[in-house]
Specification:
9% of the residues lie in helices and 54% in strands. It has 285 residues and is mainly β. It has a single domain, classed as monomeric porin ompg (Porin). The strands form three sheets. The protein has a twelve-stranded antiparallel β-barrel with strand order 3-6-8-9-10-11-12-13-14-15-16-17. A two-stranded antiparallel ribbon has the order 1-2.
């Protein structure tokens, strides 16, 4: 893993000083339509801003959400999920998670994204602070790099971690993209890899939906979990904008374990086959 860590660090310093906009990846939203070729259009060919998802995992905002947020000074994202799911695992044994986040864009170079979550049923709290940059390498290729500081507390025990991430998105068409994300934990000295295929569609001016398939692989990131292919996941999201400053959204997901081995790996006990759902809203101030 040392070679991979150095590679990710180099990528972070390569991307951040020369960013066309604010960004990120994986588990959720849509990428903008393919850009126009003219020099005039190229100026607005920014990489989609990012937001925080479960576990502070970063994801691209939808086109509609990014456009709405640009018209307001500040915004807050709130989400309730029936399970806390990351790396294909039900981290809190069926207990739900409530989270709130936002993102602050520092010029056109950097996004700062705080994410705070709480699970009263599991007496669990987590705070993540991410710094993310991105750039468009070509008309249909986006590159992202970031650093995240994580702090978690469960009952009377606490832990923290530093992570770096590197991701790439390829836009097949206006409605379909493929993404690959690699994130590395310095605490675990391990890496997790996710590849995603995503389809997005607008039903009307007020309603959008997206579906995506995700394949995850562990390489020491889940410390006492098996290495190799880890899980397969299907997710669906629906967004509804009743008025300009409010967005309501819902999600549903299904995760299926791959090569689960709870007899030999304690962290594979939470890796399983399960369904979960969530509801949330975005308020623009």
């Amino acid at each position: 893993m040392p070679d991979l860590s150095r590679l990710l660090l180099c990528a972070v310093f390569f991307v951040l000083p020369d960013v066309n906009a604010q960004t990120d990846i994986t588990q959720d939203e849509a990428v903008s339509p393919l850009p126009a070729k003219s020099a005039e259009k190229k100026k607005s060919d920014a990489v989609r801003p990012v937001e925080a998802g479960p576990g502070g995992g970063l994801k691209l905002e939808s086109k509609k959400r990014a456009e709405s947020e640009s018209l307001f000074k500040w915004h807050a994202h709130m989400l309730f999920e029936s399970r806390y799911v990351t790396e294909g695992r039900d981290n809190l044994s069926g207990e739900g998670l409530v989270s709130i986040s936002s993102d602050f864009n520092m010029g056109e170079t950097l996004s700062i994204i705080p994410w705070l979550a709480d699970s009263p049923g599991a007496d669990y709290r987590e705070f993540n602070l991410s710094f993310v940059g991105g750039r468009r390498l070509a008309d249909d290729i986006l590159l992202y790099a970031g650093y995240t500081w994580l702090y978690a507390r469960e009952h009377d025990e606490s832990a923290n971690d530093d992570e770096i991430s590197l991701g790439m998105v390829y836009e097949f068409t206006e409605n379909m993209q493929a993404a690959a994300l690699v994130y590395h934990s310095f605490y675990a000295s391990g890496t997790f890899i996710e590849t995603t295929i995503r389809y997005v569609h607008s039903i009307s001016r007020a309603v959008d939906y997206s579906v995506q398939a995700i394949l995850g692989a562990n390489d020491g990131y889940v410390i006492d979990g098996h290495d190799g292919l880890n899980h397969f996941q299907l997710r669906a999201n629906v967004e509804y904008n009743p008025v300009a400053d409010i967005e309501l959204y819902a999600l549903a997901g299904y995760t299926r374990a791959i090569n689960r081995d709870a007899d030999n790996y304690a962290d594979d006990e939470s890796l399983g086959n399960f369904v979960w759902a969530g509801v949330g809203f975005v308020y623009l101030f």
